[in-house]
């Protein structure tokens, strides 16, 4: 007769998580690195009690906002290349609702995060309870059901025994290379405390390994034939290359066949800046060099990318006659735009593509010539004093002073484009530009989560956050979290007076500046400057304001020498500070009818490029 142990639902969940491990490059780690939690009446009495008994195995970081906790969990998972995850726990009602944006971010970026969220009482005896949303015709429907579209796995525990099936299924989803994403488990307040006689075997130590799916031999053979027939091939290297651990295989494959490589936003730092086959970032936030070779390519080998519109220029970046090979562990991504799919792990697939093929020398020479021109542009673009203070200048200063293993974090607004275009990669896997969901507020929270992960592996490296004033004002409280937990970051707040990148889009489409910059908001009688330095200092950070890139460099050195989070503030120009080259067309909706001649002209100009748009699925 098998042994059992009587536990509450919450105790069983926590004990199960504490006994899950993963093997990474021959070293065993606890699969769940801990969690981020804010307690309320929906999760403190039962789940909180269970977590207290495992506070050493599963450390709980107390965030200041549930949304930012989810961002931190996402950044933690990115650092660990989706091989480890954090949980986030929130109380029933608004606490849980705050997690939805973070869940959407993880879903868009294919990142694991486990959400353990309070729910209303399954018995309904005290209904309606505080913070309950009542649906008169469907009493089973609640707020937590709203997470179904933004979760890869969703369950509501209505009986303690369901944990036996639900927890392994949630973890299997989060570790699956193709289905990876957030898992949501709703925990009704009464069920959290109910008991069950669980089989002891459920809590024995288990060591996981990430599955590697071998590609189909027929798909590989067809891909080889396409490569051998190509005259102008390129490789698009996405974030999946790093998640697969396939950077060595990608590099070896490109070098063996002399195929130029361009990088997506998620794939930045697949190759060093100095690699001769690194032709630069592609797409809307890319480089002239990558976009030039993409437009001329007759074969595009897409490795580990979901081919987002910023990568494809809304599908205008390529010749309509170009053929695609989609190498991806996810069938959905491998088949995009009539690609020939090779469904399988990137590392195994690149190893399987055995051919004697060599790219024609004139094509490689063309690609490298374009890259040299782009590198020369970047050198001038980041040079201090070449124009008013700019994002690019700040990026160049930091790039010159940071260490090779320092991790760069950016998200939303103008900085993702500026970092993607201007950052010169010093080491593999050191760039985190969150642009899958383009989520404001990720910057500081994500920096905190990245630093927690980084301190576990590379405590001497720095986490460097590029943040605009808009994102800072939206979500800054994890500066306080980083000080409290002694997880040092260096945060650059680059202040351009509002949402300047959207103002730029507004102007580029013929519209007048309206409600993006503070000075152009009609409901603001008189804008004033926020004292970001004083605000950051009030949360315990080292903080200083600088006037120019030279002063920024000196401040950055002081931040490197400091032992706690430092915030450096610099104003940048909202109009003249942009990288003007390297952009492909991007489809945005423009008015087809207007009384404004500038808007009408911009609409016609915008639509003129549509003829280059490929038709596909």
Task: Provide a short characterization of the protein structure.
The chain has 617 residues and is of the alpha/beta class. It contains 24 helices and 23 strands.
List keywords for this structure.
alpha/beta, 23 strands, 4 domains, 6-stranded parallel sheet, 617 residues, Rossmann fold
Walk me through this protein's architecture.
The chain has 24 helices and 23 strands. It has about 625 residues and is of the alpha/beta class. The protein folds into four domains: about 5-210, Rossmann fold (3-Layer(aba) Sandwich), CATH 3.40.50.970; about 215-375, 3-Layer(aba) Sandwich (Rossmann fold), CATH 3.40.50; about 380-570, Rossmann fold (3-Layer(aba) Sandwich); about 585-615, no CATH class. The strands form five sheets. A six-stranded parallel beta sheet has the order 5-4-6-7-9-8, with helices on both faces. Strand 22, helix 23 (about 550-560) and strand 23 form a beta-alpha-beta unit. It is globular, with a radius of gyration of 25 Å. The mean pLDDT is about 95.
Gap between N and C termini: 55 Å
Quaternary: single chain
What is the C-alpha radius of gyration, as a whole number of Å? 25 Å
Estimate the global geometry from the Cα principal axes. globular
């Amino acid at each position: 007769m098998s042994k059992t142990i009587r536990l509450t639902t919450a105790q069983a969940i926590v004990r199960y998580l504490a006994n899950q491990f993963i093997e990474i490059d021959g070293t065993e780690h606890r699969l769940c690195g801990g969690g981020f939690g804010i307690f309320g009446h929906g999760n403190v009495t039962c789940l909180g009690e269970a977590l207290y008994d495992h506070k050493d195995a599963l450390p709980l970081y107390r965030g200041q906002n549930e949304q930012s906790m989810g961002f931190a969990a996402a950044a933690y998972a990115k650092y660990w290349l989706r091989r480890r995850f954090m949980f986030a726990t929130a109380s029933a009602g608004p606490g849980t609702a705050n997690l939805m944006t973070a869940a959407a971010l993880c879903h868009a970026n294919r990142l694991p995060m486990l959400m353990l969220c309070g729910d209303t009482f399954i018995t309904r005896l005290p209904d309606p309870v505080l913070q309950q949303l009542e649906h008169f015709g469907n009493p089973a429907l609640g707020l937590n059901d709203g997470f179904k579209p933004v979760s890869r796995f969703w369950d509501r525990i209505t009986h303690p025994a369901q944990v036996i099936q639900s927890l392994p299924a949630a973890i299997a989803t989060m570790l699956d290379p193709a289905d990876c994403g957030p898992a949501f488990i709703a925990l009704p307040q009464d069920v959290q405390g109910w008991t069950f006689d669980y089989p002891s075997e459920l809590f024995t130590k288990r060591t996981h390994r990430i599955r590697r799916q071998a590609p189909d031999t027929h798909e590989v053979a067809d891909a080889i034939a396409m490569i051998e027939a190509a005259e102008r091939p390129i490789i698009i290297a996405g974030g999946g290359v790093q998640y697969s651990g396939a950077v060595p295989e990608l590099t070896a494959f490109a070098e063996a066949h002399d195929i130029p490589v361009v990088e997506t936003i998620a794939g930045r730092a697949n190759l060093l800046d100095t690699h001769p086959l690194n032709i630069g970032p592609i797409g809307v936030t890319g480089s002239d060099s990558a976009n030039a070779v993409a437009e001329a390519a007759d074969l595009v080998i897409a490795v580990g990318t979901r081919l987002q519109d910023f990568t494809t220029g809304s599908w205008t970046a390529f010749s309509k006659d170009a053929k695609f090979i989609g190498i991806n562990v996810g069938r959905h991504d491998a088949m995009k735009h009539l690609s020939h799919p090779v469904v399988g792990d990137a590392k195994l697939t690149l190893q399987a593509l055995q051919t004697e093929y060599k790219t024609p020398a004139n094509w490689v020479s063309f690609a490298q010539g374009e890259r040299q021109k782009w590198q020369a542009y970047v050198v001038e673009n980041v040079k201090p004093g070449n124009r008013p203070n700019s994002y690019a200048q700040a990026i160049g200063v930091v790039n010159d002073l940071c260490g090779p293993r320092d991790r760069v974090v950016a998200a939303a607004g103008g900085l993702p484009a500026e970092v993607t275009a201007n950052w010169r990669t010093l080491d593999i896997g050191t760039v985190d530009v969150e642009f899958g969901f383009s989520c404001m507020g990720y910057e500081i929270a994500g920096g905190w989560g990245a630093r927690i992960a980084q301190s576990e592996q590379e405590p001497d490296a720095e986490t460097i956050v590029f943040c605009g004033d808009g994102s800072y004002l939206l979500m800054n409280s994890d500066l306080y979290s980083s000080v409290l937990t002694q997880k040092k970051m260096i945060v650059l707040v680059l202040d351009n007076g509002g949402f300047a990148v959207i103002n730029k889009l507004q102007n580029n489409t013929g519209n007048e500046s309206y409600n993006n910059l503070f000075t152009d908001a009609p409901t603001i009688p008189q804008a004033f400057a926020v004292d970001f330095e004083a605000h950051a200092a009030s949360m315990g950070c080292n903080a200083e304001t600088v006037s120019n890139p030279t002063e920024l460099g000196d401040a950055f050195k002081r931040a490197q020498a400091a032992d706690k989070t430092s915030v450096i503030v610099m104003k940048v120009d909202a109009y003249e500070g942009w990288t003007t080259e390297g952009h492909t067309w991007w489809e945005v909706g423009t008015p087809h009818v207007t009384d404004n001649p500038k808007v009408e002209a911009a609409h016609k100009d915008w639509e003129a490029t549509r003829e280059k748009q490929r038709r596909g699925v």
